[in-house]
């Protein structure tokens, strides 16, 4: 398929070196438009990997980042996502995590000189992807005799305007229309004349500099420690109970954030919002949870939020859970934990809290506490913060509002601190 187009150098451009130490997934997107110039979909490019160095791992990382992290809706919204693949990545288990209706897989031709047997040997994998519901896109090479056996698998055929002279456009388009039901996309369209030519031949989808240059999108990410992800993988491999897995998620705010963000992303394709860790584990199932954790492990980078921030968030969550247990039913204690553990998302992501919460489906009382300091959890959060800061006035005010004694609060705080300190050995 087409190689990653070069972006003009600008102040917003980011090189792989620039990005290595940041929690940013740097992705370039280029619109694919219809005859009315309305956006039909976006082709995504991994700007942290050289165009000649794509691998199964980099393909998986691009798809994972694009569909899992904060900024997803601004990146692709509800439009189709076109992803360049290697043949190795087409066999990857990461595709099990993606709703096939959301993604078009761009399948490259094999290296020049590939034998008929090599070409045919790839067909079973492509057929299986079609049975799974994925749509496949091929380059104009699928119209050549060597690749005709792939043509009936095509949902899209992309015609690179730089690979054939204008006089060959008409027979090429006519052949594609007569031998396939695939939709044609004219790509690398760089002039009005090229656009008018292809439109006159019945091509309805277009991509290229004439319409839009690739734009960089920086998706903020937070990653849990590799040790925590490995612990999750081990729990799944041992077929641990939902309660055991939920317990681990409650101990690591970055892990739980990533899971809720992923399962509620448009790429996962659910029609309902998942708001609890237990529900997320049950919906995902052990097999997909293992795939997700493995991808999270392989796509994670060194660095991330300071460990102290995560520890503080965990202490907040546990303290709020213990305090709520004195006054609320169990399900509300779970929500109290979520308020505490996500109360530092703005610090972890380097974003305002309202922007950080846009990527999560959370119960309204949780959102009210985090955004507006209102609702039933607000005094618990204020009391928890007072415990951290030593603000005696705020401590007294909120403890009195909740009808909790100093002894109850101090004992719960001590338990929360001990619980957080012992996480590595639990």
UniProtKB/TrEMBL annotation:
Q: Which PROSITE patterns match?
A: HDOD
Designated name of the protein: EAL and HDOD domain-containing protein
Query: Which Gene3D superfamilies does the record cross-reference, listed alphabetically?
Result: EAL domain, Hypothetical protein af1432
What InterPro entries does the record point to?
dGMP_Pdiesterase_EAL/HD-GYP (IPR014408), EAL_dom (IPR001633), EAL_sf (IPR035919), HDOD (IPR013976), RNase_Y/CdgJ (IPR052340)
Source species: Giesbergeria sinuosa
Start and end residues of each HDOD domain: 222-408
Xref: SUPFAM superfamilies: EAL domain-like (SSF141868), HD-domain/PDEase-like (SSF109604)
